[in-house]
Specification:
Blueprint: H1 3-12, H2 22-34, E1 38-46, E2 49-57, E3 66-72, E4 95-97, E5 100-102, H3 110-121, E6 132-138, H4 146-153, E7 159-165, E8 172-176, E9 178-187, H5 190-201, E10 208-213, E11 217-218, H6 228-237, E12 244-250, E13 256-257, E14 260-266, H7 275-293, E15 307-315, E16 319-328, H8 334-350, E17 354-361, E18 364-365, H9 371-382, E19 389-392, H10 398-401, E20 407-411, E21 426-428, H11 429-447
Parallel strand pairs: 3-6, 3-7, 7-20, 8-19
Antiparallel strand pairs: 1-2, 2-6, 4-5, 5-21, 8-18, 9-16, 9-17, 10-14, 11-13, 12-14, 15-16
């Protein structure tokens, strides 16, 4: 199986949160083994999903430190298949158009793993390694980075340097924002709950429904998208506060700017504290928080301030569920961040809602002048690629590994903005080839 066929196969295997990365990891374990690599498969269960971390090495030699080349294999939920118009309405059917590979995970970051494996495959496996290269595949980047945490807890990594897979358009990244994942559960009042049940049993009912459309984007760059859930809330602000919410639904996951949402309401007043009132109270607090974010600018990042994205809203039998993310640059102290979360929690509490922070990853910030950075910059210069160091407005496994003392640089083929977490996700074959060449040279420089 050649490189392009392998890319097609990898995209065809579903590694979204509902599926887990097990099938993808199993395929890559066999692929690496067939190419003469030693493969350690670390099977896990996360929730009810089978997952797998992989550690791939060229030899059983031992060295004092390892050089880790890490890539996560999981992807976000693809959302509505019909929006994937470059892949025949199937996000798992890779299409090559004008030198670009389209499909879910093309840029973020399935194919990056193949680049690393191909780069190591070009080097004699029996070389006298002064630092052992390890290609590491992890699961769960989209849902808390549990794969990376498992590797650390099991003492599987003793790296000094790491290249973390991240679509960077072939730039090196040394800093990234932190991530807070938030969930809000808002219960219906007993009177409103009773009315909704009775309403659904009537033969003849009258409600008003409205659909909102937006544009998907990664939650770390909300300015690149258009939130359909925000449009829904803005519409709700203009309605009477004592209407009855029958159904509210939007988004595909907490980590993506939602492209679609729907609202169904009934003009029946009289509820003690209506769900509409609860929702608009929380939404106003979120807007107030976003105004405060603008006071904390970090010009190394784009967007330069903290951001907040409401990614998902769902109607349950007795409540409404909201989830989203908050992105925090390194310049914001932990004390300020905790103050913001406390403010939002108090507003939720005032309307009888439950507020939870389900995950928090601190920002990471590397040394731009380090020896490892200089090695990477020197190689990029030789390849006539940009030497400029950039930041990312999101977080990834670098925030986990950096806390253990590993110096992390993020790098990869493919663009982020307007590309990942969208139905037009793609990466150019040329950039995959350049990424492979870069990995090969860096392995040789660091490990031999």
């Amino acid at each position: 199986m050649d490189f392009i066929e392998s890319c097609r196969k990898l995209i065809s295997l579903d590694a979204s949160p509902e599926q887990g990365n097990y099938l993808v990891a199993q395929f890559l374990a066999e692929y690496a083994s067939d190419n003469g690599f030693l493969v350690e498969k670390l099977e896990e269960v996360s929730g009810d999903k089978k997952q797998m971390n992989l550690i791939i090495t060229p030899t059983n030699q031992k060295t004092e430190f390892d050089f880790m080349l890490q890539t996560h294999l999981d992807t976000p939920d693809p959302g509505p298949f019909g929006l994937w118009n470059k892949t025949g309405s199937n996000p798992f059917d890779a299409h090559i158009i004008d030198g670009n590979i389209y499909g879910l995970g093309a840029a973020d970051t399935k194919l990056d793993f193949l680049c690393k494996l191909e780069a190591l495959n070009r080097i004699d496996k029996n070389s006298n390694w002064k630092v052992l290269p390890k290609i590491v595949a992890t699961y769960g980047e989209e849902t808390g980075m549990n794969g990376a945490l498992k590797l650390i807890r099991k003492n599987k990594i003793k790296a000094k340097y790491a290249l973390i897979g991240e679509p960077s358009d072939l730039h090196i990244i040394t800093s990234g924002k932190g991530l807070a994942s938030v969930e809000i559960h808002i219960p219906f009042g007993e009177d409103e709950k009773k009315y909704r049940i009775e309403h659904n049993l009537k033969e003849s009912t009258s409600t008003v429904s409205k659909i909102f459309n937006g544009k998907s984007a990664h939650s770390s760059t909300p300015q690149m998208g258009e939130s359909a859930i925000k449009k829904l809330f803005e519409y709700l602000l203009k309605m009477p506060s004592d209407i009855t919410i029958m159904e509210i639904d939007g988004g595909v996951n907490f980590n993506t700017v939602p492209a679609n949402s729907i609202l169904e309401i009934d003009f029946v007043p009289g509820h003690r504290i209506s769900m509409a009132k609860k929702l608009t109270t929380i939404y106003k607090a979120i807007c107030d928080l976003e105004d405060k974010f603008l006071q904390f600018q970090d010009e190394e990042f784009q967007p330069s301030s903290p951001t907040l994205n409401i990614g998902l809203v769902r109607t349950k039998e007795d409540s409404i569920f909201i989830s989203g993310t908050c992105r925090i640059p390194p310049s914001v102290s932990n004390e300020i961040y905790e103050g913001w979360m406390k403010e939002l929690a108090l507003v939720c509490q005032s309307v009888e809602a439950e507020f939870r922070i389900t995950d928090y990853k601190r920002p990471f910030k590397g040394d731009k002048g380090s020896e490892f950075v200089q090695i990477c910059q020197s190689q990029l210069k030789k390849m006539n690629l940009p030497e400029k160091i950039i930041t990312i407005p999101s977080t990834n496994e670098a925030s986990i590994f950096a806390r253990t003392g590993i110096e992390c640089i993020c790098f990869g083929a493919g663009k982020r903005e307007g590309n990942i977490h969208t139905p037009s996700e793609h990466v150019s074959i040329e950039s995959l080839q350049k990424a492979t060449d870069f990995y090969e040279k860096i392995i040789q420089k660091v490990c031999l």
